[in-house]
Write a structure and sequence with these properties.
Layout: H1 9-13, H2 37-41, H3 48-60, H4 66-70, H5 75-88, H6 96-102, E1 107-112, H7 132-144, E2 147-150, H8 155-162, E3 168-171, E4 176-178, E5 194-196, H9 202-216, E6 223-226, E7 231-234, H10 243-254, E8 260-265, E9 268-273, H11 279-289, E10 298-304, H12 310-319, E11 323-327, E12 338-340, H13 343-369
Parallel strand pairs: 1-2, 1-10, 2-3, 10-11, 11-12
Antiparallel strand pairs: 3-4, 4-5, 6-7, 7-9, 8-9
Helix pairs in contact: 3-10, 7-13, 9-10, 11-12
Pfam family, one: Trehalose_PPase
Protein name: Trehalose 6-phosphate phosphatase
GO molecular function: trehalose-phosphatase activity
Length: 370
């Protein structure tokens, strides 16, 4: 890996033009709509049964948890289920030639989650480092295709992890977006991308973060992370016997903030503004910003492993354009078309994509010379 392609976070953080306070986004998008108060208060009902449902969901969403494992068939039944799931969501590596055939004459645009996709899921969120080989693969992909990282992490954190300058970054589940000042790809050269979907929620998010730090400090292993436009409460290192009390601690804080909603990911509870904005909306915004919103000859590819990535998978399925790739070792309901088992397979897919592009360009050059 060459030094010029991995840059200090300070340099990457300057990849977009600074926003003037109170100004409109450079690429206007329909303003996010707030959901009704009643709808999201339902997530925080006082009944113990509701708490139990959340805890059961917390268990079931953990691929390595005993309950999640027990819920899956074993023996021949497990093999049959896995086989049936792979038929519905075949490996993107095994179907690589078919995917490339479908992309013929189209501009591929790459979107990728970070945690669990480009880096392994780890106990300490601050230690979710991507490998040098993965960084090299992502850097090479960005040379040939518009490439975006769409993460639940705050923008600065995901930039600090990736450390590549030529990418588009969407932090806080797409609520905080920046792009390079000099986009490499033709359709994206008009203006730099800068967009924040929920700026008015920043003081509220900060207050909730501080309240959750105080409220959860009695729960060993709980980790509260401020992702700028959302707050994440990690319970990966919390004893299962304490999950109910942790959820109650989170809920007790959120009762005071009806404009925030509670969602769930892989061993994490996430608090977000009640606006209609998610990774799917971020994908649509970036396609529009790149000049591909109304194009028929574009092939968006989204790779992710989490529940929050399903919003992006669904957008692609509904558009009938491009496809999602779910990163998972276990069968699960998904709107993705293809699958990969783990980040190492994501790297292999990216490497093959770059090799395919280089060979295609070489073949075109020979035809032109002839």
């Amino acid at each position: 890996m060459t030094k010029q392609n991995v840059v200090p976070v300070e340099a990457v953080a300057a990849i977009a033009v600074a926003a003037v306070a109170g100004s409109s986004p450079l690429f206007p998008y329909p303003p996010p709509r707030a959901y009704g108060r009643r709808k999201y208060l339902s997530h925080l009902e006082l009944g113990g049964g509701r708490i139990g449902a959340w805890v059961e969901s917390m268990k079931a969403s953990s691929p390595t948890h005993a309950k999640a494992t027990a819920a899956r068939p074993s023996g021949d039944a497990a093999v049959d289920e896995q086989s049936a799931w792979v038929v519905r969501h075949p490996s993107a590596l095994n179907k690589f030639e078919q995917i490339m055939s479908a992309s013929k004459g189209k501009q591929i645009v790459m979107f990728m989650d970070y945690d669990g996709t480009l880096s392994p899921i780890v106990d300490d969120p601050d230690s979710a480092f991507m490998s040098d080989a993965m960084r090299e693969a992502v850097r090479d992909v960005a040379r040939y295709f518009p490439t975006a990282i769409v993460s639940g992490r705050c923008l600065d954190k995901v930039i600090n992890f990736v450390r590549l300058a030529d990418l588009y970054y969407a932090g806080s589940h797409g609520m905080d977006i920046k792009g390079p000042t000099r986009p490499r790809h033709a359709k994206a050269r008009a203006k730099p991308v800068l967009f924040q979907a929920a700026s008015e929620f920043l003081p509220m998010i900060d207050a909730v973060y501080k309240a959750l730090l105080e409220r959860t400090k009695s729960t060993p292993g709980a980790r509260v992370e401020n992702n700028k436009f959302c707050v994440s409460v990690h319970f990966r290192c919390v004893d299962e016997k304490s999950w109910s009390s942790l959820f109650e601690q989170v809920r007790s804080v959120l009762k005071e903030y009806p404009k925030l909603r509670l969602t769930q990911g892989r061993k994490v509870l996430e608090i977000r503004p009640t606006i209609k904005w998610d990774k799917g909306k971020a994908l649509e915004f970036l396609l529009e910003s790149l000049g591909f919103s109304d194009c028929k000859n574009v092939m968006p590819v989204y790779i992710g492993d989490d529940r929050t990535d399903e919003d992006a998978f669904k957008v692609l399925r509904d558009r009938g354009q491009g496809f999602g790739i779910l990163v998972s070792k276990f069968p699960k309901e998904t709107n993705a078309t293809y699958s990969l088992q783990e980040p190492s397979e994501v790297k292999d897919f990216l490497v093959r994509l770059v090799e395919w592009k280089r060979l295609s360009m070489k073949a075109c050059s020979k035809v032109q010379v002839a």
